[in-house]
Amino acid sequence: MKNKNLKWGIMSALFVCPLFQSCDKTKETTKDVVVTKETKIKPVPLANLGIPGFQFPEDSVKIYEWLSKKDTTSITQHAWGIWAGLTANTSEVYAGDSLLVYETWLGAGDLASLSQDGKKEGGCDVTKTTRQSLVRPSQFAHAHLAMLGARQDLIDDSATLFVSTSYDPNAACFATQNLIFNQSVLNTYGVKNGIGKTPPFPNNAITTKPTYFIGKQSDALIRIPSWPGPPNPAKPYDSDVWNTYVYADVNNSQPAGKQIVPCTGKATPEQIKAATCNLSDFIYYKIDSAAAQYINKQQQGSGETVNAGDLAVLVCMHVATKEISNWTWQTFFWSANADAPFSPSSAFAASLRPKQLQGAAAHYAVSTAYAMVWPNQPITGGTNKNVTPIIGYNPYLEAGFGPSTFAGVPNQMNPKFKFGVETNCMSCHALAAYDPSKTIANQPFPYSADQYIDMSDKKLFNNKVQLDFAWSILANVDSTKTK
């Protein structure tokens, strides 16, 4: 959550000054934002806001008790405590903007560069000079939104989705100490005719995947797709086809507590007015010229252009913690009605938000996946028989997946599960593995709809190295480095 009296900063992860080098005192001016190139940002651990009953890391025995009792109340309360800690303000400042906890963390790409240079302590005690780079999601392309129902000169309809992956200080230190992004290191964990494994992350490790839409500050309103709930029957349901929007007022002139009513693309002016919220209802940042240039290189030929001063608006975030062997999984997405969000969240989940969660951060819904199925199965030797699914996904990231996404991993629980709205974070990330027999460019990225994944299943993992549920390792390995 950003305090209203703070000057908005820049999405500075793409700043021209090298990430881990000292910079001179020259300044770059972008509209009303001044960037000082000597900024140093120290990664901050998850904040403890004094939420009753919440601690991190939680004892794994207690979490397993929640799972054995199907205690969704305790699970959801724990997820909210993590979200509150991630979105708390810190004393770290960039361009006059007080950074949130998760914004101070090193990106997986940053850690991969350190690992690949053999800097084992690189992730353990380091300051950085920028925020993390934003990249286009590789699994789907975001189409240009059609302009309907309002004046084109006042509404930005070209919001584009970008993501990043960050490791908290504990996960970051582990990653570089073990050089887990180096292909030569991963090769050492291979087991011929067996299943290899990387060392497990520490139980206080956290990884995040913030996801942003880019909109234009120069427009009065930014049109952003708003999740309308899952389709029935299930089908690929990417945000391009929801046809449901809210309009973020860049000037924050909407009344506090306004009830937001999302509208369709063919909305009347009155409907657009009802669908308009304040930009401050989102977590967001300004983009500087270097960031804009970096983003534009990724979308050459798309007809879309990002400019300095445009806005990166947080729409969702995946969060995983290593508090149990299979990690805890929680995902957050912006909701027009934060008190009664659509599935895969619920009004029940919203009712458990702690009072410490205020402002923009309280406008996001939560979905959890602390197990793959009910009842919870053991790490190995479990079953897909006589179990019920646990659906946990993020509408902005997985809802668009269709049968081809899951074709490589047959579903043993329900063969009809073939769509993103039938997924579970844990089931999918359980498949994160490296194949030593293949080049990095030819590594498979198999995904699964919701089902129990046995971590000793040789059909899935034989002659592979399990990556402790971290697809981000495989996505950032560089085969050119051998240290």
Descriptors:
483 residues; alpha+beta; nine-stranded mixed sheet
Description:
The chain has helices at residues 60-68, 72-86, 108-116, 169-177, 183-188, 269-274, 289-298, 347-351, 425-429, 458-461, 471-476; strands at residues 10-11, 27-30, 33-36, 89-94, 97-100, 106-107, 155-156, 160-163, 166-167, 195-197, 206-215, 221-225, 245-249, 276-278, 284-287, 311-321, 328-334, 364-368, 373-374, 388-389, 433-434, 464-466. The chain has 483 residues and is of the alpha+beta class. It has one domain. The strands form 6 sheets. Strands 1, 6, 8, 9, 11, 15, 16, 17 and 18 form a 9-stranded mixed sheet that branches. A hairpin with a 6-residue loop joins β16 and β17 (328-334). The longest helix has 15 residues, at 72-86. It starts with 9 loop residues before the first strand and ends in a 7-residue tail after the last helix.
Shape: globular
Q: Using DSSP, what is the number of strands?
A: 22
Strand content: 15-25%
Low-confidence stretches: 1-36, 139-154
How many distinct helices? 11
Round the Cα radius of gyration to an integer and report it.
Answer: 22 Å
Our measurement of the CA-to-CA distance between the termini, rounded to an integer number of angstroms, reads 40 Å
Describe the biggest sheet?
9 strands, mixed
What is the residue-mean pLDDT, rounded to a whole number?
A: 86
Q: Structural class of the secondary structure composition?
A: alpha+beta
Q: What is the total number of structural domains?
A: 1
Topology:
Elements: E1 10-11, E2 27-30, E3 33-36, H1 60-68, H2 72-86, E4 89-94, E5 97-100, E6 106-107, H3 108-116, E7 155-156, E8 160-163, E9 166-167, H4 169-177, H5 183-188, E10 195-197, E11 206-215, E12 221-225, E13 245-249, H6 269-274, E14 276-278, E15 284-287, H7 289-298, E16 311-321, E17 328-334, H8 347-351, E18 364-368, E19 373-374, E20 388-389, H9 425-429, E21 433-434, H10 458-461, E22 464-466, H11 471-476
Parallel strand pairs: 1-15, 7-12, 10-22, 13-14
Antiparallel strand pairs: 2-3, 4-5, 6-9, 8-11, 9-11, 11-16, 12-13, 15-16, 16-17, 17-18, 19-20, 21-22
